[in-house]
Amino acid sequence: MTDYAPFPLIDLSGSPRERGRQHGKAAADRLRRGAKMYAESLLASGVDWKELERRAEAMVAGIEQFDPAYVEEMRGIAEGAGEPFAAVMLMNARTEMVAAARRQKAAQHFPDGCTAALALPEASADGVLLHGQNWDWRAECAETGVMLRIRRDDGPDILTFTEAGGLARSGLNSAGIGLTANALECDRDYQRGAGVPLPFIRRKVLESAHLAQAVQTIVSTPKPGSNHMAVSHATSNGGGGEAFGFECAPDETFWLAPERGLYVHANHWITESARAKVKDTGLAETPCSIYRDKRVRDQLGQKMDSGRGKLTFEDFRAAFFDDWGAPWSVCRPPRLNTRGVMTATTAMILMRPGEGHLEACPMPALNRNFTTYALTPDRTAQKQAAE
Questions:
Q1: How far, in Å, CA of 45 to CA of 39, rounded?
Q2: CB under 8 Å to 211, separation ≥6 — which residues?
Q3: Going by C-beta distance under 8 Å and a sequence separation of 6 or more, which residues neighbour residue 149?
Q4: For residues 375 and 12, is the Cβ–Cβ distance under 8 A?
Q5: 275 vs 281: CA distance, rounded Å
C-alpha cells in the first residue's frame, strides 16, 4: 500500500469574492495542476488557451442568471491563486467544455465513473442515515482534490469535496443535506447548447435547507448533459431522514426511491421510464457499471438479509473496497481506460450528514488511510425540516 496525502481542508467565510480569494490562495498549486491537465487535453486537440478564454467568458452570462454569486466566487478564486479566470471556469465546467470540443471533433470525452450508496436510518445499525461514494476519474485528481468548509451567513454551512478551484462536488451541509453525483450519458446530451454546468447545480443543492429545495433545484434546472445525483436529508438530530436518486437527462428528470432503506447507483440508467425514453450511450465507456452497481447492492443487501444486523460504515467501506474484476472493479486501481487515459478510484467518501461527519480516502485501491472532516450540524434547522 502507498500513503497519499489527505485532501487539505480549506475554511472559507465572508462574501463570495472573499471566500473565493481564500480558496484560491490556499489551493493555488492544486488548482494550477488541475487546470493544466484539462487545458493540455484540449490543447492537444486544437483548442488553444485563447479559445478557452473566449469560451469561459461566453459561459458567464448563463451562470450569472443562475446565481451571480458563483461568478463572483470564481473570480475571487482566480485572484487568490494568481491564475486566469478561464482556469477556474475550466475546473467548474470541464465536462461541458470538453463536450463542446467533442462536438467539433476537437477532443475526446473521458466520462468519470462513480458508485454511490446510502442507507436510510431504518437500514443502519445505529439509526443514522449513511451516504457514501467511490469517485472514479483521472488518477491525477487524487492529488488535486480539496475539502472546502464554507461558512455562510445566508444559509446552511457546507462541507464539500471537490477539485481545487471547483465550487462543489459531493458533500453535506449543516441542515443535514447530503449529496453525491455520478456520470450518466444519453443521446440527448449537449445537443441544445444551453443549461447550467453541473458543479453549480451541486453547489445550489448543498445550499438547501430543505430536501424540497434540493429537489426543486435538480428537477427545474436545465442541464447541458446527463448526470445522476443522490440526495439525502437527515433530520431531527440524525434520527430520521429521507433520500432519493435523480437520473437527469438535459431536459427531463427521473427519480428513484430506496428499497428497504437501501439505495445504490453506478453509471447506467436504472429507472424503467428513463430506459424506455433515452438511449444509454455511456456503457461503452463504463461497461463495468452494470456489475459495480450489482455487487455493492448485493453486499449491502446480504448483510441486511443475513440476520447479522443492519448496515454500518464498515459495511459501506467493505462494499466500496470490492476489487472483483480488477482493474474494472468497484474500487479501481490506476489503469488506462478505453481511450488511453489513466483512471482510478481517486477518492472514497463516507458521510453521516445528520452529524456533519465526512471521511475521505484518496486513491483507496492503493491507500487505506481515511481523514475525518467535521461540520457542526444546525440542530434547529434539522428539527424544523422534520416538522
A1: 10
A2: 177, 231, 233, 242, 385
A3: 9, 10, 11, 12, 157, 158, 159, 373, 375
A4: no
A5: 11
Is the distance from CB of 376 to CB of 229 less than 8 angstroms?
no
The cell for 277 is 425514453
What is the pTM assigned to this prediction? 0.94
Residue type, 150: I
Reference 183, options 360, 343, 71, 65; nearest CA is: 343
pLDDT by residue for the chain (387 residues), tens digit each? 778 999 999 999 999 999 999 999 999 999 999 999 999 888 877 889 999 999 999 999 999 999 999 999 999 999 999 999 999 999 999 888 876 666 554 444 555 679 999 999 999 999 999 999 999 999 999 999 999 999 999 999 999 999 999 999 999 999 999 999 999 999 999 987 779 999 999 999 999 999 999 999 999 999 999 999 999 999 865 468 999 999 999 999 999 999 999 999 999 999 999 999 999 999 988 999 999 999 999 999 999 886 556 999 999 999 999 999 999 999 999 998 777 789 999 999 999 999 999 999 999 999 999 999 999 998 655 655 555
- Buried b or exposed e, range 331-355, using 16+ CB within 10 angstroms: bbbbeebeeeeebbbbbbbbbbbbb
Rounded-to-integer distance, Cα 231 and Cα 246, Å: 8
Q: Is cis: bond before 6, omega within 30 of 0? A: no
Sheet of 177-183, strands arranged across: 9-12, 145-150, 158-163, 170-173, 177-183, 227-235, 240-249, 252-256
Residue 28 is inside which H or E element, if any? helix 28-43
Tell me if residue 125 falls in helix, strand or coil.
coil
Query: Cα–Cα distance between 322 and 24 in angstroms, integer?
Result: 36
| Residue type present at position 134 | N
